[in-house]
Specification:
- The protein is α+β, with helices and mostly antiparallel strands and 143 residues long.
- It contains two helices and seven strands, in the order βββββββαα.
- The protein has a five-stranded mixed β-barrel. A two-stranded antiparallel ribbon has the order 6-7.
- The longest helix has 11 residues.
- It is extended.
C-alpha cells in the first residue's frame, strides 16, 4: 500500500478570470507583489492557474476565490472555484439604484433623477438622517 504525499503551496487564492473557453475550466491570473532585494522595490509577479468550474458560472473579468485541490483533476487543473467574489458588469450606483458602466449610466435617467440634490435629501430622509448643511444654511438667513 502506497501513501501519496500531497504538498500544496497556497490553499486559498484570489485572482481574476482571464479565460473560460475550456469546458468546466476557468483560466485565472493571480498577481502578487515580490520584493527585489537589490533595488528594494516591489514588482508584480503573476501566475496563471486552471480552476475547475463545474457549473460554468464565471465569466471573463470576474474576481474569484480558488481552493486548492488535494489531487490534480487533470494535467493542469490544480484548483477549484470556491466563490465568485465580484461579478463583472453588475455595478449599481448607490444614489440612483441604476446600473452603471464606468462613469456612464446604462439606462437613461428619468426626470425625477435630474435634480440630484433633491434626491439626496430624500434618500437621507428615508434613512432618518437629517441634512446638517441645510439646517446651517437656514439659520444665518433667519438672523
Amino acid at each position: 500500500m502506497s501513501v501519496k504525499s500531497v504538498s500544496v503551496h497556497a490553499k486559498w487564492i484570489v485572482g481574476k478570470v482571464i479565460g473560460t473557453k475550456m469546458q468546466k475550466t476557468a483560466k485565472v491570473r493571480v498577481t502578487r507583489l515580490v520584493l527585489d532585494q537589490y533595488l528594494l522595490k516591489y514588482y508584480n509577479k503573476r501566475k496563471t492557474y486552471f480552476a475547475h468550474d463545474p457549473l460554468e458560472q464565471c465569466t471573463v473579468g470576474d474576481v474569484v476565490l480558488l481552493k486548492a485541490l488535494a489531487e490534480r483533476r487533470a494535467k493542469h487543473v490544480t484548483h477549484e472555484l470556491a466563490e465568485i467574489v465580484y461579478k463583472v458588469g453588475n455595478v449599481i450606483d448607490p444614489l440612483t439604484g441604476k446600473q452603471v458602466a464606468g462613469s456612464l449610466f446604462r439606462e437613461t435617467l428619468t426626470d425625477s433623477m435630474e435634480n440630484p440634490a433633491g434626491s439626496l435629501t430624500e434618500k437621507l430622509q428615508e434613512l432618518n438622517i437629517s441634512a446638517a448643511t441645510s439646517e446651517i444654511l437656514q439659520k444665518p438667513s433667519e438672523v
